[in-house]
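Below is a filled-in request sheet from our internal design queue. Each sheet records the structural input a requester submitted and the sequence that came back. We keep these sheets so that new team members can see what a complete request looks like end to end.

REQUESTER: design group, bay 2
PRIORITY: normal
MODE: inverse folding
CHAIN LENGTH: 206
BACKBONE (tokenized):
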């Protein structure tokens, strides 16, 4: 988050009341009006898109300290994705009135958000290129490196990983087991611990 220059937004969000929700709670729904966006104080949230036939594609799994739902809030168009709590969560909703007053008091908040949105567009473009041209081990290694917390642990199911990198669950499972045999990762229940992240980074450089 600090890399996206959102320290000001994090500090601001910490002053607002939070909302608690349980796993499975639908935070917002695709094609609905975006009346607010959110700061995630605690827990994990999955954003996903769903086809008319019910097929689901995971876009991102947000960790504590993230902002989400901001794009549709600012362009004032219907949401392009849905978001659901994966774990018990504490969320800080920020509506238009709150945001307008905050930016009036601190104009640097607006520049911070513009930088964040520009960075998001860049990352999405890179992800599209990766999905189109990179092999599964490369995509999975990048997913693990980008999703690791301060303890070098990625909290995600294999189904979520598969959806995020556009691969089958069987292929993700086989690749993770290969990483584990090499001693690069340790597999646990709904998590992967990075033992040798330098090897994953080296793979991403090839």
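RETURNED SEQUENCE:
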């Amino acid at each position: 988050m600090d890399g996206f220059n959102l320290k000001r937004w994090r500090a601001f969000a910490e002053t607002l009341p939070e909302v608690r929700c349980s796993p499975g709670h639908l935070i917002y729904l695709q094609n609905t009006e975006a009346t607010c966006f959110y700061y995630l104080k605690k827990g994990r949230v999955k954003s996903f898109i769903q086809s008319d036939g019910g097929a689901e594609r995971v876009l991102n799994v947000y960790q504590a300290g993230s902002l989400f739902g901001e794009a549709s809030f600012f362009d004032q168009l219907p949401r392009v994705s849905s978001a659901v709590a994966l774990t018990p969560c504490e969320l800080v909703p920020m509506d238009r009135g709150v945001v307008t007053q905050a930016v009036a008091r601190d104009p640097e908040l607006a520049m911070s958000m513009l930088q964040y949105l520009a960075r998001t567009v860049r990352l999405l473009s890179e992800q599209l290129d990766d999905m189109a041209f990179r092999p599964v081990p490369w995509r999975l290694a990048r997913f693990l490196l980008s999703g690791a917390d301060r303890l070098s642990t990625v909290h995600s199911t294999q189904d979520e990983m598969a959806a995020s990198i556009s691969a089958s669950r069987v292929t993700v499972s086989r690749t993770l087991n290969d990483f584990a045999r090499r001693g690069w990762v340790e597999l646990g229940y709904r998590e992967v611990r990075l033992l040798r992240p330098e090897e994953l980074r080296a793979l991403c450089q090839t």
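SHEET NOTES:
- Residues 108-133 form the longest helix (26 residues).
- DSSP finds eight helices and eleven strands in the chain.
FILED BY: M.R.
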